[in-house]
């Protein structure tokens, strides 16, 4: 199937590693002109270089923190300056810290809302006018299975992802007639650098090995394995494609069957 996104201009935030990086690389493989950002200039330039070396196309890495209004405005302005348009916008960020109701103070909720909800809303406000002008656009928010099935001990993720999902569904209806689709991808346990680091930290705390912790996570999934970032990327690139033109307002789980609900 030809995904029909050759020469489309794509933004992927928080893409120096993990899921964001895998999505950026897959979009580049499909012929999109890709711009990526993260908080560290060194990391993001290195990531852009790695994709260029592997795929053989131009990818631009720019330092921008998704929680900073000025930095994200500058990032989008630079994309428009270099490419003249934005067609695809993948909103990704780091994850909020694990915590329970008793552990989380209001400041932690504010920070998590900034990182995982407002960051996507801010980007959409910048790119949707461009997409409207071109009567074509794709917004893909990377959320989490926690938006569908709250995860114990992750009250910040459970709260902010659900908020973003409600916002995205509302937005999808408001921009549908302009040729813009808005969808979410909800990853389950995915073997990224972050998950490996979390497993290491948890293993030390519990006196177990990293492998034992990773095996426990895999065991919670009907497929009995963790996902690969490339498996999330494949779904994201499909939703970003011409072929996904009649899909909007959905949350697609890419989770090996982790979410047990029917819808
Ligand atoms: N992996 C999973 O199992 C899983 C499951 C469900 C949901 N998710 C969610 O999916 C997202 C990506 O997860 P991941 O596992 O790929 O994480 P990861 O391996 O930790 O990668 C996070 C990326 O985000 C960048 N980043 C972090 N904070 C940023 C900020 N404020 N502004 C700009 N860039 C920022 C990091 O780069 P720099 O350090 O260079 O800034 C890095 O490139 C997270 O929101 C996570 O909670 C992950």
From TrEMBL:
Keyword field: Oxidoreductase
Any one GO molecular-function label of the UniProt entry: oxidoreductase activity
Organism domain of life: Bacteria
Matching PANTHER family: 3-OXOACYL-(ACYL-CARRIER-PROTEIN) REDUCTASE, NADPH-DEPENDENT REDUCTASE BACG
Similarity comment text for this entry: Belongs to the short-chain dehydrogenases/reductases (SDR) family.
Protein known as: 3-oxoacyl-[acyl-carrier-protein] reductase
């Amino acid at each position: 199937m030809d995904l029909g996104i050759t020469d489309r201009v794509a933004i992927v935030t928080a893409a120096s590693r993990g899921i964001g990086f895998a999505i950026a690389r897959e979009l580049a493989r499909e012929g999109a002109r890709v711009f990526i950002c993260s908080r560290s200039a060194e990391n993001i330039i290195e990531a852009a270089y790695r994709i260029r070396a592997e795929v053989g196309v131009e990818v631009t890495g720019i330092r921008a923190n998704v929680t900073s209004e000025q930095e994200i405005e500058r990032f989008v302005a630079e994309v428009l300056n270099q490419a003249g348009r934005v067609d695809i916008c993948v909103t990704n960020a780091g994850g909020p810290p694990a915590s329970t109701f008793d552990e989380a103070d209001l400041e932690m909720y504010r920070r998590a809302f900034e990182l995982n909800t407002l960051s996507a809303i801010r980007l959409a406000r910048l790119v949707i006018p461009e997409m409207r002008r071109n009567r074509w656009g794709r917004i893909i928010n990377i959320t989490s299975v926690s938006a569908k099935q709250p995860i114990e001990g992750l009250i910040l993720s459970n709260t902010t992802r659900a908020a973003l999902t409600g916002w995205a569904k509302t937005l999808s209806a408001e921009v549908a007639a302009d040729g813009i689709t808005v969808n979410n991808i909800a990853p389950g346990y995915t073997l990224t650098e972050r998950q490996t680091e979390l497993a290491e930290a948890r293993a030390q705390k519990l006196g177990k090995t990293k492998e034992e912790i990773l095996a426990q996570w895999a065991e919670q999934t009907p497929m009995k394995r963790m996902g690969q970032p490339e498996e999330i990327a494949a779904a994201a690139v499909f939703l970003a494609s011409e072929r996904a033109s009649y899909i909007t307002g959905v949350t697609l789980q890419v989770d090996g069957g982790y979410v047990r609900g029917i819808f």
